[in-house]
Write a structure and sequence with these properties.
By secondary structure, this protein is mainly alpha-helical. It contains six helices and two strands; from the N terminus they run H-H-H-H-H-H-E-E.
Length: about 160
């Protein structure tokens, strides 16, 4: 596809830069101010005027091809996750936090493969909370599996906040 040039006002560029920088820092995509919404709408209009593929009957295939060309090596998408056999697993944030915290209570003598499975589940749970903008804080239990030395209070608390 050929290069496309669009022109933004200085205000649009500054607002969009801040919006994208915040997304880059937090992995959360949401507007904080109506000006961001307006700048995104304006950008959408500018792109719509420049892109012929949006009216092309082959739009879906062109979009898939464009996504594939931009995706990082090892990057994922819903179809790849499905092909890999992974499923969407919709849970309440409290339940996800429970899963993320409970794996730390596994017995130290549990087989390494089992601990690794639970560690992967906990990692994905914590990632889901992070991507949803929910801050998760956990302390390690007094007994069980530890990545390092348990904290002195060793009380297993979970704090969820947006």
């Amino acid at each position: 596809m050929p290069d496309i040039t669009i022109t933004l006002t200085e205000d649009e560029a500054l607002v969009l830069f801040d919006f994208l920088a915040r997304f880059t820092d937090t992995d959360l995509l949401g507007t904080e101010d109506q000006a961001e919404q307006r700048a995104l709408w304006n950008l959408n209009c500018l792109l719509e005027r420049q892109l012929i593929p949006v009216v092309d009957p082959n739009y879906r295939n062109l979009l898939i091809s464009a996504r594939n060309s931009l995706r990082d090596d090892g990057g994922t998408d819903a179809a790849s996750e499905q092909i890999a056999g992974r499923l969407a697993f919709w849970l309440h944030p409290d339940t996800i936090a429970f899963i993320a915290n409970e794996w730390r209570k596994l017995p130290r003598d549990m087989p390494e493969d089992d601990r690794q499975h639970w560690a992967d589940i906990a990692f994905r749970a914590m990632s889901a909370l992070h991507k949803a903008g929910i801050r998760y804080t956990a302390t390690q239990p007094a007994n069980g599996y530890h990545l390092g030395d348990p904290p002195s209070d060793a009380g297993g608390t979970v704090e969820l906040s947006s």
